[in-house]
């Protein structure tokens, strides 16, 4: 089956370059998670240069302060870069973040769920969830739901989820959703990104007609800090190999395009990779799995009772 490619790699690359310094995002507020390094940091800089107010979400640390200074240094002098600290593995931390944003800001135009981890061993969060699943799936699910009222009130608004082509070949195993029976870093990461795809498309279906769009993307093989939780040997190997990867600035292009380009305003439920619109891994379109996963995420976050 042929898939209509509304946006090609050339059109996205050219469009992002043409948008730079255009101030097209003036007056708009963009929340970006994982801004202490890599693609998140480059995304924050790119959108700030388009005039957006940036809510830069990162864990509180010396490293995050250095990153924040770098973002501000690479942004216009009058750019509004607002740091907000949160631990995305903690539901309590995310709820506090959402409350702070909802109380502080009148609107939210773009939510970019960029943060993600890749862990060599199975560890549990303070909520008792497997860490890769918690950060890569539960965090964007919960934060997006907690921001929905604000996003709907600010429509047209956009949700952009940074996925990965690691979802290719993955299948969701509800009997081993959190590596309870068997854990491997490649399998856990790939399954988590497939789950993010399913959740994104479920958001797109549920938000149809609201003016809020939801899209997802593979940024390419990029030099990021994704492997920060690997063991020392794996981290050393990854550090060498990533020298040959693309820059975070290149990896951020599609995210910036989906967050800002006028022609992407009404696009929803679409997947982008290699800077063009593509068909996502086929398992991403399993509606039954998406609904089942959604219900599981609701259960694990007590979202219905919270709302």
Structure explained in plain terms:
With 307 residues, the protein is α/β, with parallel strands linked by helices. It has one domain: Rossmann fold. The chain has eleven helices and eight strands. The chain has an eight-stranded mixed beta sheet with strand order 3-2-1-4-5-6-7-8, with helices on both faces. Strand 5, helix 6 and strand 6 form a beta-alpha-beta unit. Helix 1 packs across helix 9, helix 4 packs parallel to helix 5 and helix 6 packs across helix 10. It is globular, with a radius of gyration of 18 Å.
In terms of topology, how is this protein built?
Layout: H1 9-19, E1 29-33, H2 38-48, E2 53-58, H3 62-74, E3 81-85, H4 91-104, E4 110-113, H5 131-153, E5 157-162, H6 185-206, E6 212-218, H7 232-241, H8 248-251, H9 253-260, E7 271-273, E8 276-278, H10 287-301, H11 303-306
Parallel strand pairs: 1-2, 1-4, 2-3, 4-5, 5-6, 6-7
Antiparallel strand pairs: 7-8
Quick synopsis:
About 45% of the residues lie in helices and about 15% in strands. With about 300 residues, the chain is an alpha/beta fold.
Q: Which features would summarize this protein structure in a list?
A:
11 helices; single chain; eight-stranded mixed beta sheet; alpha/beta; 8 strands
The residue ranges in which pLDDT falls below 50 over 5 or more consecutive positions are 240-245
The CATH class assignment is Alpha Beta
How does the helix and strand content classify structurally? alpha/beta
- Strand order across the biggest sheet? 3-2-1-4-5-6-7-8
DSSP, total strands: 8
Mean pLDDT: 90
Spatial shape:
globular
What about the largest sheet?
Answer: 8 strands, mixed
Supply Rg: 18 Å
CATH level-four homologous superfamily name = NAD(P)-binding Rossmann-like Domain
CATH topology, which one?
Rossmann fold
Q: How far is the first residue's CA from the last residue's CA?
A: 41 Å
Overall tally of domains:
1
CATH architecture: 3-Layer(aba) Sandwich
Beta-strand percentage range: 5-15%
The H-and-E topology, N to C, reads as HEHEHEHEHEHEHHHEEHH
- Discrete helix count: 11
Helix percent reads: 40-55%
